[in-house]
Amino acid sequence: MVKIPARTILHIDMDAFFAAIEMLDSPHLKGKPVIVGGSGNRGVVSTASYEARRFGVCSAMPIFKAKGKCPQGIFLPVRKERYGEVSKKILDILKDFTPLVEPVSIDEAYLDITGSEALFGNAEEIAGHIKTRIAKETGLTCSIGIAPNKFLAKVASEMHKPDGLTIISVDEVDTFLSRLPIERIPGVGKRTVEGLRHYGIKAVGDLKRFNKEQLIRWFGAFGSRLHELAHGRDDSAVVLEREIKSLSSEETLESDTEDLAYLKHLVGSHAEKVSWRLRQEELKGRTITLKIKFEDFSEMSKGLTIAHSTDSTKIISDSATELLLDCPLKRRVRLVGVAVSNLEGTKRESQGSLFMQEGEKERKTDKALDEIRKKFGGKVIKRGR
Ligand code: TTP
Ligand code: MG
């Protein structure tokens, strides 16, 4: 039998991330029910402090419902740029412990620390160092899970939130899985849980009673994954910094509208935000997508792909506006968003073309505006239209 070398995987997830940063920046909010989310009464909750969670407030809950559950809550808007800044700081700390860091979302990452133990101590000590440095350099707490693979490390990091540290050693895997509810498997939805319960499967370990073929018959391709997880196996590797697949900017409006001039203005302003972020990330994209949600919550996405990838505000704005004008706007609109996908990095010199020369003037304007934004902050300057 081929012996697979044992790995030590660490999963880290920040505690109540957006809310914790708000409390950090405004210390008088500490210990209060802070709820961060979409504008006014119409958006949804991005996250809530642990104090607010006690009232039943959770991510993705409509704001008006959260206000009902927690009227004394302190409701704050999302400050994505600030959270991104902190996220980057944390990522830099993590990279001091191993180059094998896989950021999964704004507040979550996997680290393969198999080779780091000789340098920084055993897994528990490494987790301790990470927690101390994050606390010292950002003022925030995180929860860490350590296990022989990504699946178990992720589940472990959720076990003792907030400020938790959970280690599952190879010998403990079977006992751990025999008690772990199937709902805790990432990616298992309500319907799969119901299906599994129907066969008397409540804990992940219960899945071991069925062979792989049987699980595939019941759950298709996912059955094979379930079989692996039941035995505590997950061979997926820690992948270095994921490629960003798309960038988007959207907003739920204060009140529904069918005013085309206003919608055009909104599309332009979101195109501007997306293109600014593309330039910050040194990316360009070819596919521009417009997303619209109507008053009856129905949704529509339309996209177009241009010949050359771009980060130009004008090109993205013009394309998104074209898509808007193509839209059958028979109902009032409640949400507008612009996304750019099909991305490539711009650090590498791209080939020159006539198109690029034509875009040169726009590029210079964008660059000048970016410089001013950097000096005076994003809010002060808007392109005249
Ligand atoms: P999470 O890690 O899921 O949540 P959290 O960090 O706020 O709380 P926990 O202590 O349970 O980890 O998500 C990280 C951030 O992502 C969160 O602070 C806000 C944002 N987010 C949303 O905007 N919408 C969502 O539906 C979720 C789940 C998160
Ligand atoms: Mg988190």
Question: Would you mind describing this structure in some detail?
Answer:
The structure is a single chain. The protein has helices at 17-25, 50-53, 63-69, 80-95, 117-120, 123-138, 150-159, 173-179, 190-198, 212-219, 221-230, 260-281, 313-325, 354-358, 360-376; strands at residues 9-14, 34-37, 45-48, 74-76, 101-105, 108-112, 142-147, 165-167, 246-257, 283-294, 299-310, 333-345. The chain has 385 residues and is of the alpha+beta class. It has 3 domains: 1-168, Reverse transcriptase/Diguanylate cyclase domain (Alpha-Beta Plaits, 2-Layer Sandwich); 173-230, DNA polymerase, domain 1 (Orthogonal Bundle), CATH 1.10.150; 246-376, Dna Ligase, domain 1. Helix 7 links the parallel strand 7 and strand 8. Helix 12 packs antiparallel against helix 13. The chain is globular and about 65 Å long. The termini are far apart. Residues 347-358 and 378-385 have low confidence and may be disordered. The structure holds thymidine-5'-triphosphate and magnesium ion.
